[in-house]
Amino acid sequence: MTRKHRGVGFFLLALIVLLVAVRLAVPAQVERGMNRVLQGPPYSASPEAQALHARLAVADLHADPLLWGRDLLLRSSRGQTDIPRLAEGGVALQVFAVVSKTPRGLNIEHNDDSTDNILPLAIVQGWPPRTWGSLKQRALYQAQRLHDMAARSQGRFSVVGTQAELRGFLERRAQQPGQVAGVLAIEGAQVLEGDPANVDALFDAGFRMMSPTHFFDDEMAGSAHGVNKGGLTEKGRDMIRRMEQRRMIVDLAHASPKTIDEVLAMATRPVVVSHGGVKGTCDNRRNLSDDQLRRIAANGGLVGIGYWETAICGNDAAAVARAIRHVVRTIGLQHVALGSDFDGAVPVPFDATGLVLVTQALMDAGFSEPEITRIMGGNQLDFLAKNLPE
After folding, report:
1. DSSP conformation letters of 200-252
2. Which residue intervals of 126-221 are DSSP H helices?
3. Considering only CA atoms, which of 262, 257, 288 is closest in space to residue 275?
């Protein structure tokens, strides 16, 4: 080999090493900054809370770990959740949401769709080129990653998409505690790329829940955080009808008040608000009013309470319990759920191994064991058992 060839070879090797280092280091650094845990493990609770928590089948309506490129079968030193930490926290079922696009300078007041935070993250993480210019392909790629993890998990983790699959999982878990199931969801119908017929392709990929909007207005509906904050478009109405035909669950998290009104006016099936808070304990644009809570309850819907500051105006499990208490007092126990937003680019008080702190906070707030059993997972599992495809 000539000196020139050796020089070229060294340059290529150095470039490869640099690219690998960037791929490994940049997503980790970004995630450590965005998915902070305010109080790290281990977590302590009373013996009574620990004993009760060990008997629970916890279910959570929203988390975003698929965005960050980690192998969720492995316990990570970063982020807020993965399969081992979910199992340790007593989680039976986790809804895994897919994020396809977020704007720069993201906020809860006013965002347009002109920028794309996810593209550079996708490129650095090595997502296939088809995802670089297609939000639909980003969703399909993340779904495939979750299915691949389930296939490699040796039975520790499964993805469920039907009532029968959920029943089978719960029967297995009763015999082998520690198993975790996942349900796939989508944040924002921008993944449809303007065509409501794409609901079918997403359903076929395993998605069972989708919100009309995320942080900006899209071709289907207005976001609470968008520019116009309008309601459903004609395409959006078509999307809702197609989702209901396929028994996909409509998620009203991030929806504008007008979108919430118009979805509830046409919905023939129960909806969810997968993650958020309530104005009764934390008054801001992100959260639900008591009137909205009552209309969601009249629809038979379910409201997931998150763990981050904007949702609960607090940084501990007691603030989570206060929001839950408000929902229960306003619309009844059967309509409240957990919606952590773990790994959703928000700091949270604890990671998935610390869910016993929520059980403790609910006990301290005066909830009984049967009530806590419903809040921590019973409501969520019953809702999915009735509303997933048969």
Report:
1. HHHHHTTEEEE-S-SSS--SS--BTTSSS-----HHHHHHHHHHHHTTPEEB-
2. 135-152, 163-175, 198-204
3. 288
How many Å from the N-terminal Cα to the C-terminal Cα in the chain? 65
Strand duo 207-210 + 336-338: pairing: unpaired
CA angle 374, 362, 325 (to 5 degrees): 80
Q: How many CB atoms lie within 10 A of CB 39?
A: 14
In angstroms, what CA-CA distances link 282 with 60, 321, 376?
A: 21, 13, 21
CA dist 355 and 378 (Å) reads: 15
Local confidence band at 13 (pLDDT 50, 70, 90 cut-offs): very low
pLDDT of residue 28: 84
How far apart, in whole angstroms, are the C-alpha atoms of residue 136 and residue 140? 6
Asked whether 150 and 159 are in contact (CB, 8 A), the reply is yes
Distances from the Cα of 46 to the Cαs of 70, 110, 346, 355, in angstroms? 33, 43, 28, 13
Give how far Cα 83 sits from Cα of 22, 157, 198, 352, 388, Å. 25, 7, 30, 9, 22
The proportion of the chain whose per-residue pLDDT surpasses 70, expressed as a percent, equals: 93
CA-CA distance, 146 to 94, in Å (whole number)?
12
Is the dihedral angle over the CA atoms 345, 351, 352, 358 positive or is it negative? negative
Q: What are 304-361's pLDDT values in tens digits?
A: 999 999 999 999 999 999 999 999 999 999 999 999 999 999 999 999 999 999 999 9
Neighbours of 175 (CB within 10 A): 7
